[in-house]
Design a protein that fits this description.
The structure holds 2 protein chains of 2 kinds.
Chain A lengths: L3 H18 L7 H19 L4 H8 L7 H7 L2 E6 L11 E8 L2 E8 L5 H7 L6 H17 L3 E7 L6 H5 L2 H14 L4 E10 H5 L6 E5 L3 E3 L3 H9 L5 H8 L3 H6 L5 E3 L10 H20 L3 H13 L4 E3 L10 H7 L1
Chain B lengths: L22 E3 L6 E3 H6 L15 H8 L6 E2 L4 E3 L11 H12 L5 E8 L2 E8 L10 H17 L2 E8 L7 H20 L4 E10 H4 L8 E5 L4 E2 L3 H8 L10 H6 L5 E3 L4 H10 L6
Parallel strand pairs in B: 6-7, 7-8, 8-9, 8-10, 9-11
Antiparallel strand pairs in B: 1-2, 3-5, 5-6
Classes of the chains: A alpha/beta, B alpha/beta.
The structure holds zinc ion (ZN).
């Protein structure tokens, strides 16, 4: 995507010409139309056949809209609830009440920082135990007052560090998962950017999982997989393809429910349009789920997650290949 | 004993040595020890007490009443939904692990008794791709909990896993959601779940089913944590204490209930499960 800068330059140029065009006595409309056509052509060429690694880069694009951007447009009146009541408040995982088309909902949102300063505060969008404990608190609130729960996922993963391990980050993820498994309201998870491993899934065990077109969801970062399995950090591109982490592939594998289209070049190219499409999708899904009584909702959620997995019966082993586990344990 | 002594199991296995050698050298104390004695001693060095890995079969043998174990592990294998290839095709890696262990995947489940107390037991086997959790392990853990519910027995899971099975991509990550979902039902059914954490209990296994026991017991020498030492050092280059993620570290920070020596685990489980005998 080294050509992205060329497109930005061209876009700036067109804007410049438009301003000139507004000046009386200058007519550049033909020139503008020609350049716009050219821009459209280049955009298509650049973005239409993205490979998986290019999608990873798009999912992490610094200009990509983050949760707070959607919170201000898709939802109304976000009323943040802060703190885990024990040790602090995680700024990488936000929780609160909001309205969606006037209806009160509980929102969980992973939030990256735009600036170095903000990233310091938000730990680059990597939640810590404080965040997962807060999430559980918010899930319990949703359950108590029957507010639907909407999660926005955008994180490289849980923050890896001594303090996080001292506070048992793994158990806080497990408990957030368990709370989501049992919450008696409709739950929708939206992956808006990066769905990084357990830290992302912690708020993703939902009745419906949708992804933005250029979002990713993966068990491990491509870089991590490359260094563990290929023993070569430069194989991240191969790992990205092998992991099948794009929205398109995960839909084909039956692991997510839907894809929200993005404008050519990514959500940041036309944020308004992306936010509109996302809102339409969430509202539609929520009205479908809201029609179900709570016990049926829970039964469906149970069946969905109980059924995840791909396996077949192994060919009947020859006698000498029988597992010694059986023999040893029966002696 | 120094902290280092307690840090982790030696990464050698009794069964890896050529079968015709009767002796092995313990890497902890350097002592030449008789292999059969090590085996009979629960894979603990008879000379210095260092722990070696137990296979699932050896672990089961060390816990249940003789003759009581019935294997419930159906021989299912992953169908490799991603057709995953890294430096080696996943299918090949699987076949090698299956040949090495005679297991179809990294866990054995079954029913048995411990000092007469009936239970459903799941035991991971670290030799099988690091005990990693993919579709098959997730399925077996769920089936074990379902058997516990059907038979009104307690559930005991002995973990030894590096985390998710990367080669199964999102299918493996979602096993966290799957096992947690079924665990919730086990709780609703009012049946006890004792989670035993050994070396290692980490990543996606620690961040899901293993941490959700009613009682959490760590074997001495265990490693318990989410992100590994190497990941933390590579990501944020943080200084970590020598006993980081050991059972002592976990106990001091309130992450587990008890620490038990390997040779005492059987009696410990009987003791713990005894309190729940009236529940069923
Ligand atoms: Zn020794």
């Amino acid at each position: 995507m080294s050509d992205e800068r060329t497109l930005d330059l061209l876009e700036a140029k067109i804007e410049e010409l438009r301003q000139l065009n507004a000046v009386e006595g200058i007519d550049l409309s033909k020139e503008i139309a020609r350049l716009e056509e050219k821009l459209q052509h280049l955009r298509r060429k650049l973005y239409e056949n993205l490979n998986d690694w290019e999608r990873v880069k798009l999912a992490r694009h610094p200009k990509r809209p983050y949760s707070l951007d959607y919170l201000e447009t898709v939802f109304e009146g976000f009323y943040e609830l802060r703190g885990d009541r024990v040790t602090g408040d995680d700024r990488a995982l936000l929780a609160g009440l909001a309205r969606l088309d006037g209806r009160p909902v509980v929102v969980l949102a992973q939030q990256k920082g735009r600036t170095t300063e903000e990233n310091k505060e938000r730990f680059f969008g990597m939640p810590r135990p404080q965040g997962f404990r807060k999430a559980r608190r918010a899930i319990e609130l949703a359950d108590r007052f029957r507010f639907p729960l909407i999660s926005m996922i955008d994180t490289p993963g849980a923050y890896p560090g001594l303090e996080a391990e001292e506070q048992n980050v793994g158990a806080t993820i497990a408990e957030s998962l368990q709370a989501m498994a049992g919450v008696r309201v409709p739950t929708i998870a939206v992956v808006i950017g990066e769905g990084g491993s357990g830290g992302a899934l912690a708020i993703g065990l939902a009745d419906c999982i949708v992804m933005l077109e250029n979002a990713i969801f993966s068990v491990i970062t491509p870089e991590g997989a490359a260094s563990i399995l290929w023993k070569d950090k430069d194989k991240a591109k191969d790992a990205a393809a092998a992991l099948q982490l794009t929205a398109e592939r995960l839909l084909a594998l039956g692991l997510i429910d839907g894809i929200v289209p993005e404008p050519l070049g990514g959500a940041h190219k036309d944020f308004g349009k992306t936010a509109d499409a996302l809102k339409t999708e969430i509202v539609r899904r929520l009205s479908e789920l809201s029609a179900l009584p709570a016990n049926e909702l829970l039964a469906r959620r149970y069946a969905r997650y109980r059924g995840i997995g791909r396996f077949v019966l192994a060919p009947i082993p020859t006698p000498d290949a029988l597992p010694p586990a059986v023999d040893a344990a029966r002696n | 004993m120094s902290l280092f002594k307690e840090r982790q199991y030696l990464r050698i296995r009794v069964d890896r040595e050529a079968d015709d050698s009767l002796w092995m050298k313990c890497k902890a104390c350097g002592e030449l020890v008789f292999k059969r004695r090590v085996r009979e001693n629960n894979n603990v060095c008879p000379s210095c007490g260092e722990y070696f890995f137990l296979t699932a079969a050896e672990r089961i043998d060390s816990l249940v009443d003789p003759g009581s174990f019935e294997d419930l592990t159906e021989r299912i294998v992953t169908d490799d939904p991603l057709a995953f290839v890294d430096s080696q095709p996943y299918r090949e890696r699987l076949r090698e692990a299956q040949e090495k262990t005679s297991l179809s995947d990294a866990i054995v489940i079954g029913r048995g008794t411990i000092e007469g107390v009936p239970l459903i037991l799941g035991v991971m086997d670290f030799r099988f791709i690091g005990g990693s959790m993919g579709s098959v392990m997730g399925e077996h853990i769920c089936r074990a909990m379902e058997a516990a519910m059907a038979e009104r027995r307690a559930f005991v899971l002995v973990s030894s896993s590096g985390g998710a099975r990367i080669q199964e991509g999102m299918f493996s990550l979602l096993q966290m959601a799957k096992t947690v979902t079924v665990r919730r039902r086990l709780a609703e059914a009012g049946l006890p779940f004792v989670s035993v954490m050994t070396y290692p209990t980490s990543g996606g296994v620690q961040a899901s089913i293993a941490s959700l026991g009613d009682i959490l017991i760590a074997e001495k020498g265990a490693l318990i944590g989410f992100a590994g030492r190497r990941v933390i050092q590579q990501t944020i280059a943080q200084e970590l204490p020598a006993h980081f993620q050991t059972e002592t570290f976990a106990l001091e920070r309130g992450q587990i209930d008890r620490v038990v020596r390997r040779e005492d685990l059987r009696a410990e489980l009987a003791l713990a499960l005894g309190f729940f005998a009236g529940v069923r």
